[in-house]
Design brief:
Shape: globular
Order of helices and strands: HHHHHHHH
Distance between the termini: 42 Å
Length: about 180
């Protein structure tokens, strides 16, 4: 309950800030706020509002030629599509592949590992174990590259993420051996 109340407060504050930016300019800031609002809606499982926020933000990020945001919007849309599209992962996969392409072209390592992880999870759900394994392995390599360039004091949260990716990789390898 407490977490849900904090998320609702976050939505209210983000909506107020977005209205200010829309009224007084600051399209780039609006792109950032729109992403945060959409991600918060996604976390609250308000898929309709998340979709509206993410689509609008992706359009604005593309128009403003902000590839880092475009990649993160594609990642968020891929996560959303994987949650709302039952039995058909092609929309989610298409979004995630688009995000991966941008990340690779622009060398955006931070969102890249997240995209690779989501692709791995999506493919693991569809019983594509070899492909999932390849994406989990790529995500692990990308996180390791991020960690190499990061100051020691900032590594803790990434180490937690790295362990989660590492565990998915181990699980996928074990599943592949069973098959």
């Amino acid at each position: 309950f407490r977490r849900e109340a904090k998320l609702k407060d976050s939505l209210r504050i983000l909506a107020e800030a977005r209205e200010i930016f829309l009224q007084f300019g600051g399209e780039r800031d609006t792109v950032d706020l729109q992403l945060e609002h959409g991600l918060t809606c996604l976390e609250m499982r308000d898929f309709e509002q998340a979709y509206l926020d993410l689509e609008e933000g992706l359009h604005l990020a593309t128009r403003l030629q902000l590839p880092w945001y475009a990649a993160n919007y594609q990642l968020a849309m891929g996560r959303l599509e994987s949650l709302i599209t039952e039995g058909e992962a092609s929309k989610a996969e298409s979004r995630l592949i688009g995000a991966e392409r941008i990340c690779l072209e622009k060398s955006f390592l931070d969102p890249l590992w997240r995209v690779q992880l989501e692709l791995g999870k999506l493919l693991a759900k569809s019983d594509s174990t070899p492909e999932a394994l390849a994406h989990f392995s790529s995500a692990r390599e990308s996180i390791e590259q991020v960690l190499e360039s990061m100051p020691d004091e900032c590594r803790n949260s990434y180490c937690v993420a790295w362990r989660a990716v590492d565990q998915r990789l181990v699980n996928a390898q074990e599943a592949r051996r069973i098959l």
